[in-house]
Fold this protein.
Amino acid sequence: MSIRPSGLPPIQDVAPEGGFKKIDTIRSSFPRRGPKGWQLWAGSATLIAYGFYQIGQTNIENNKEKMHERKARYGILPILQAEADREYLEREYVNLKKEAEIMKGVNGWEVGASPYNSKKFMPRAVNPLDRGLK
């Protein structure tokens, strides 16, 4: 341990004579600490209600846009269906030609006849990705 150079005992801090001043603990002297509880609840409820309102308005707008797109698709549907039918007939014609070529030696074979014993129309399974057979 070291020795103080002056050789005097250390000075200890103590309260001044008569003591320290009293601390003012009255609520009015402190600044406000924010809004009251009911104000927080009311503000939160208002913001949540506004958010749900905005979601509802956005959903209505999105539904209008979807209906507009759907009506546009319905408008061009006959054109798209006609194009798909034309492609189907082209593939069916190619398949019938191949079937006639392959089955030309079989007696009693009808080209294009349904393999099912039903009078109900069932389109043949035509692979639309098989473009190399034309």
Observations:
- Residues 37-102 form the longest helix (66 residues).
- The two ends are 106 Å apart (CA to CA).
- The chain has a mean pLDDT of 84.
- The helical segments are 37-102.
